[in-house]
Amino acid sequence: MRDMDQLVVRTENSTYEITVISRETGEILVRGGRFFPEFTPARLAGSSLGGSFLKLRGIYAGFNLEIHVGRKLIVTSRVSKISLAA
Q1: For residues 1, 29, 44 and 72, what is the CA-based torsion angle, rounded to 10 degrees?
Q2: Cβ(58)–Cβ(46) under 8 Å?
Q3: For the residues of 8-70, what is the DSSP string, one character each?
Q4: Could you give the angle at the alpha carbon of 23 between the alpha carbons of 21 and 29, nearest 5°?
Q5: Residue 39 in contact with residue 29, Cβ under 8 Å?
Q6: HSE of 26 in the Cβ direction (CA atoms, 13 Å)?
Q7: What pLDDT does 11 receive?
Q8: Rounded CA gap, 35 and 22, in Å?
Q9: End-to-end CA distance of the chain
Q10: pLDDT by residue (tens digit) across 9-66?
Q11: pTM, to two decimals
Q12: What φ, ψ does residue 30 adopt, rounded to 5°?
């Protein structure tokens, strides 16, 4: 991913629109699902399979996204599809 890339990420339960602000730090804007009704500044920690292994600042099909908003950690359902926004 590059800075300012816009992605659509579909999980088992929701669809998220993500704008990458800084790929180096994981800063993003995210909208979608029940936690992000409007674009919200957040930090993409990475993707995991639910354990302690975390693929830093990446989004991968079959993995759960881990997103930090302030002190709160949001873990999504598994990613099923990733695409660039039109």
Answers
A1: 180
A2: yes
A3: EEEESS-EEEEEEEETTTTEEEEEETTTEEEEEEEEEEEEESSSS-EEET---TTSEEEEEET
A4: 30
A5: yes
A6: 16
A7: 98
A8: 21
A9: 15
A10: 999 999 999 999 999 999 999 999 999 999 999 999 999 998 888 999 999 999 999 9
A11: 0.92
A12: -135, 140
Q: Please tell me the predicted confidence (pLDDT) of residue 71.
A: 95
Task: Check residue 32 and give its pLDDT.
Answer: 98
Tokens (6 digits) for 35: 């936690």
Q: Are strands 54-56 and 15-22 parallel, antiparallel or unpaired?
A: unpaired
The rounded distance, in Å, linking the Cα atoms of 18 and 40 is 10
Please state whether beta strands 27-32 and 72-84 pair in parallel, antiparallel, or not at all (unpaired): unpaired
3-state secondary structure of 28: strand
Instruction: Check residue 10 and report its DSSP letter.
Output: E
pLDDT confidence tier of residue 86, bands split at 50, 70 and 90: confident
- Report which residue type is found at 75: V
